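W.,

You were right to be curious about this one. When I first looked at the sequence I had no strong expectations either way, so I just let the prediction run and decided to look at it fresh. Below is the sequence, 151 residues in total, followed by the output.
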Amino acid sequence: MYPSLYEEQTLNEMLDRIHKLTPESQPLWGKMNVAQMLAHNNVAFDITSGKTPTSYNFLMRWMLKLFVKPIVVGKKPYQKNGQTAPVFVVTDERDFNTEKDLLVANFKQFHADGAAAYEGKASPSFGNMTSQEWSNQFWKHMDHHLRQFGV
């Protein structure tokens, strides 16, 4: 599966990659600039923490769990230029350093909270998830976008 963000080495490797980004980093695909990409990744943490409230009716949650969750937490890497939920779309200009600092803080907080805090935690989109699924989700999403920017 994917490296666990609960492990110090995995966290440090992810943070090292994030720190290789610069305001001048250019995407190899996609529409977002680097600051928008960082903000886009922060949305996942904001939803998880409740800072960005999201809710879906029963039918939508069932469809997300059945069709989207396997893509988000499963073994296959994300495809380039894939569809994203409207809540994750960032089109306004963002400050690179602000978004980067927030993302680093989000990853550090996730790691500090530890696996026990996420075991069985409910996702607004996918229902209860294992701690490994939470780690997979954050690692896989960030890895996809770091590769998008050549890091």
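Here's what jumped out at me. The chain has a mean pLDDT of 94. And, maybe more interesting for your project: The beta strands are 122-123, 127-128.

Coffee later to discuss?

I.
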